[in-house]
Amino acid sequence: MTTPTAPAIDQLKELPLPVPPFGYFPQTWGWVVLLLAVLVLAAIWGALRWRRWQRDRYRHEALAHLDLLGQALDDRERRLSALRELPELLKRVALSMPDAPPVARLGGQEWQAFLAQRSTAPLPEDFAARLFAMAYAPDAQVLAMPDAEVRALFTTSRQWIEAHHVAV
């Protein structure tokens, strides 16, 4: 009688993976069309958002610069330069608008009218005059401005930068 021999490991065969009971591909072409339509709409929406963000990039940069100017108000050495830069910042924002309005030469009532026309909220009647004084008055007069008035000018400027109307 012969003794049974133990099977060798090289005789083992790997078992095939089982087939899943469902398919990963949609059963009808309608689902594929719907998926493609959703992907196309998502791509269009993303492109429009990116284009809008690019168009409003000047606002974001101006608001970041306005924040730096606001922080400089608390420092005595930098306060005067921060106060002098606010009117310049508003003029640069107006010059950077996508519809490129001719604002470089505007001053006084014309500048006030432009700011009020593009603003979504009412501006103070003397907003442009106070900005003019902030830009061109003697240093002592600018530094003597009450802190509440300065903060109000910065708040109004922030609101105008954030929400001014751009003709497209």
What does this structure look like?
By secondary structure, the protein is mostly helical. Helix content is 63%, strand content 0%. Helix 2 (57-72) runs antiparallel to helix 7 (147-163). The longest helix has 27 residues, at 29-55.
Structure, briefly:
The chain is mainly alpha-helical and 168 residues long. Helix content is 63%, strand content 0%.
Major sheet description: none
Helicity, as a percent range: 55-70%
Strand content: under 5%
Order of helices and strands: HHHHHHH
What shape does the CA trace take?
A: elongated
- How many β-strand stretches? 0
List the uncertain runs.
Answer: none
* Average predicted confidence as pLDDT: 87
Rounded to the nearest angstrom, the distance between the terminal CA atoms is 100 Å
Number of H- or I-type helical stretches: 7
Global structural class: mainly alpha
Give the assembly state of these chains: single chain
**Computed CA radius of gyration, to the nearest angstrom:** 33 Å
Topology:
Blueprint: H1 29-55, H2 57-72, H3 76-95, H4 108-118, H5 127-136, H6 139-143, H7 147-163
What attributes does this structure have?
168 residues
